[in-house]
Amino acid sequence: MKTTLKLFSLCFMFLAFVGCSDDDEDPITEFTVTAITPESGTVGTEITITGTNFPSDASAVNLTFGGVAATITSISSTQIVTAVPNGATSGDISIVANGFTKSGPSTFTVLSELVSGRMENLEAPQTGGQGEPVGGPFTKFSFETGEVTDSEVDWDIAFRGTTIAINGGTVTGTADEPARNGNAGAAIQNGTFADVTSADGLTFAQDADAAFAIPTGSDNGWYNYNPATFIVSPIPGKILVFRTHDGKYAKVEILSYYRDAPAQPDPFADESRVFTFNYVYNPNEGETSLTN
User: Fold this and answer.
1) Which domains can be identified in the chain, with CATH numbers?
2) What residues of the chain score a pLDDT lower than 70?
3) DSSP states along 115-170
4) Which residues fall within 8 angstroms of residue 87, CB to CB, at 6 or more apart?
């Protein structure tokens, strides 16, 4: 009888110990991901991931952008802060923790950096003038390549003399102008180059019969002509904003109409019809930002 009681007591103590041990163990908690803000950005952009039951230790979390590991800068049970890593590609943001793998509620888009460039000495010759019919081919420019192009399709703006054409709308009836086969548009904004930060909300005009989207003539568009000095000068504070032929956006500040952009042009010594301009181009589809 005593032996039976001892065995019973030992079994009871063992079961009680096991039960206590199970109660002391932390249960494996499944986390959730409820939001990723923002949902797009360039490499280095800070990203906040919101959810529940994240581990408190960043080393317990494996976070990747399209398979590329990202560094966690801060973490709490409800928020992870990270940055888009070098080499990241658009797709899911994946989080692995506590034996679970989760993705965000939406895919993340890795954006290309905006392109800031300067075009120097773009030649825009013309024939005629001074009362004679104006003609000659336009010099076409592509924001995507940042270069003059001979392409019949992949061009955005084109220059001849003081006239600027865009690859959108219809022909104006001007001699030797290029055919329009894109959806480019143009808007003129007042302010400094830095002031123009977005194309969002702008109204874009297109070339049309007998009218260029960027008006021609002194004081009408981008330039002023001084008949006393014979100098063509960009109007200060006039920034040209373009929708490109394929629906992206760029801004342009024309700096000079003379070769090598002299500070004080001499119309009798400095070659004219030679453009120098600064530009910023956003290569991302649907993105209107024009500042980094």
Assistant:
1) 32-110 (2.60.40.10), 115-282 (no CATH)
2) 1-27
3) EEEEEEEEE---EEETTEEEE-PPEEEETTTTEEE--SSS--EEEETTEEEESBB-
4) 68
